[in-house]
Amino acid sequence: MITPYVEIKNVALKYGQDSSSLALDSLNISVHQGEFVAVVGPSGCGKSSLMKLVTGLQPVTNGSIVVGSQVVKSPLNFVGMAFQNSSLLPWRSVIENVLLPMEIVQPYAKNFKKNYSEYADKASALLKLVGLGGYENKLPWQLSGGMQQRVQLCRAVIHEPSLLMLDEPFGALDMFTREELWAILQDLWIVKKPTIILVTHDLREAVFLADRVLVMSSRPGKIIHELRISEGRPRHLKATYQKSSVDAIAELRECIQEARIVRS
Amino acid sequence: MQRYQSLLRKISPALVFIGFFLLWELFVKIFNIQEFILPAPTKVFESLYEFRGVIFQNSVQTLMTTLVGFLIAIVIGLMGGIVLGSSVIIYESFYPALIAFNSIPKVAFIPILVIWFGIGTIPAICTAFLLAFFPILVNVAAGIATVEPELRDVLRALGASKLQMIKKVGLPRSMPYFFASLKVALTVAFVGSIVSETVASNLGVGYLMLVASSRFQTSLAFACLIVTGALGIMLYLICALFEARMTRWTIRSNDSILFKE
């Protein structure tokens, strides 16, 4: 048996001193190296808290989280993150935004000036991969929402993080842009094989992208269902309308529906 | 039509000034006001020319004290703002004291400054500084303290240090606030140095005005006011120029009312 890359054990999270407001309770998740896991659930179930816990931005109230062989206590610096809002730095051009991790994360940062052109080439190549070749020197506000999310994706992967945490990165986009970015994300994953945890409320997205879909209950959040998607790679968008995918989506939907009823 | 409008936009500030002086001139002429009460603009410009030597000498002094006080205020205001804005504890502990300090009329410091440094240049610089540093400090602190949590998370998730956080997010983000405060700080720096010169100096525009009024040379006093206004506009434009270069990212359209390329 291989030891999991991300191991979340019996984790509880509580905001503030009030004990009745547990955001997460007895949460157990393990993710293998190179695996693509999606987490879905009703809104307000603590999916975004999960992101903050795994990256170390938020300390756990109880339980433990191990990433690699390291117990998470403070922010990890080998994780790439992308959020629902593009969170690009508005004063930096597109390429400067993508290069941000290279200025901070070691071993890249200490040679940043010396290797600048090499890093810039890498950033340009990534931008080209997501269809933004030639946009290097634009400012974020000059791009559409979908373009900003692509830039964010490039920024999340440029330092080749072994773990990618994606918090509804396509949530604010229209369906066509979203589908386009799913394909791009799948390509990125196939090439670089990072471990990915994707939090989303789009079931088609989860079924299209992930090896495994986890369903969280409403507050306090814990995993109530797990679904393995055995469809081969690379997957095609049309496949999301095939029977196996439709069945998977229906199963997940039912599960979340129940979780919502329990809550009300 | 378009060309006519853009021409109008360019010369309209000058038209406002000319209109103002014309009305003033008319007002004096119609009501036949005596020169030592309110001199007509023509008289004011006449004495501006007549006393150009002494006015130049004194305005150089005022410009110098204002600029030195202003520059010190920028340095202290920026550094203080960074420290204040990046720590909640420091912010909360120092803020009441700063408010208290800022509530004291700075003119009240001048007699004390005179005891310490004598009359002349240094009290003027100090007063300019005391008035100018507060708006800079408060604005820079606000810019740094209000960094969006998402931006902070992005940096923290990369393992950025506190210093990197300030350098890469806090400072660039507070630049628009900083430049907005510079425009306020600059004008109050002028107020500071001129008031100080009026009370305790034998050089500078403030002193010259005091002398002029004691001799009932009202037109000379008005000439000094005009020179001060002109200096203010000049420095303001320099600030705006820097602002346009440093905070280009905040401007999202080509016909912004703030900057024109």
How is this structure best described in words?
- The complex is a heterodimer of chains A (264) and B (261).
- Chain A folds into two domains: 1-78 and 162-264, Rossmann fold (3-Layer(aba) Sandwich); 85-161, no CATH class.
- Chain A is 35% helix and 22% strand.
- Chain A has helices spanning 47-54, 94-104, 116-129, 145-157, 175-192, 203-209, 243-263, and strands spanning 6-14, 22-31, 36-40, 62-67, 70-71, 79-82, 163-167, 195-199, 212-216, 223-228.
- Chain A has a six-stranded mixed β-sheet, sandwiched between helices. A four-stranded antiparallel β-sheet of chain A has the order 2-1-4-5, with helices on one face.
- In chain A, a hairpin with a 6-residue loop joins β9 (212-216) and β10 (223-228).
- Chain B has 261 residues and is mainly alpha-helical.
- The A-B interface holds A 52, 55, 57, 75-77, 79, 81, 83, 85, 87, 89-92, 100-101, 103-105, 139, 141, 159, 165 and B 148, 150-151, 153-160, 164, 168-169, 172-173, 175, 247, 249-250, 252.
Outline of chain B, from the CA principal axes?
A: flat
The CATH superfamily title of the largest domain in chain A: P-loop containing nucleotide triphosphate hydrolases
Q: What is the approximate shape of chain A?
A: globular
Terminal CA distance of chain B: 21 Å
Q: In what range is the share of β-strand residues of chain A?
A: 15-25%
Q: Classify the oligomer.
A: heterodimer
Q: Which stretches of chain B of 5+ consecutive residues score pLDDT under 50?
A: 255-261
**Structure class of chain A:** alpha/beta
Discrete helix count of chain A: 7
- The overall pLDDT average of chain B reads 88
Q: Tell me the total number of β-strands of chain A.
A: 10
